Amino acid sequence: MITGTVDRDRVPVVTLPVAGGVWSAAIDTGFNGDLELPESMRSLVSARYHGEAKSELAGGQIVLEDLYRVEFPFDGQTISADATFAPTKQILIGTNLLQKYHLDIHFPKRTVLLERVA
User: Fold this and answer.
1) Angle at 51 between CA 46 and CA 54, to 5 degrees
2) What is the pTM of this model?
3) Domain around 43
4) What single DSSP character describes residue 68?
5) Which in 26, 83, 89, 111 has the greatest CB count within 10 A?
């Protein structure tokens, strides 16, 4: 189980321990991939080039990005996931990574709960 908050911009956010640090991660229900990671995290997650990915952004713009297979700590285990890297400080968690999770966002209480389901 992972808990978090809804920040002042109404973004559901959790914190994740990665390589001895704590990173902020936004849950992006409009992103159907696994992860977008900060460029500074590339060496921490054993990134291996996996190919190119075509993504359609919210405004309809199509972009090509390099896709990497990473070993990523998530909910107490290390998972293999597909990731892109961006010049940002925050992780984006996409819906593909959450296929085995129940996501509860309570905006009035500003709480987030990710719970693995059987």
Assistant:
1) 120
2) 0.91
3) 2-116
4) E
5) 83
> HSE of 89 in the Cβ direction (CA atoms, 13 Å)?
2
CATH number for 38: 2.40.70.10
Contact yes or no for 74/114 (Cβ under 8 A):
no
Cα torsion angle, 88, 65, 2, 111, sign: positive
Compute the distance between CA of residue 13 and CA of residue 38 in angstroms, rounded to an integer.
Answer: 15
Of 84, 97, 86, 96, nearest to 16 by C-alpha is 97
pLDDT digits (tens, 9 = 90+) for 41-86: 999 998 999 999 887 777 888 889 999 999 999 999 999 999 999 9
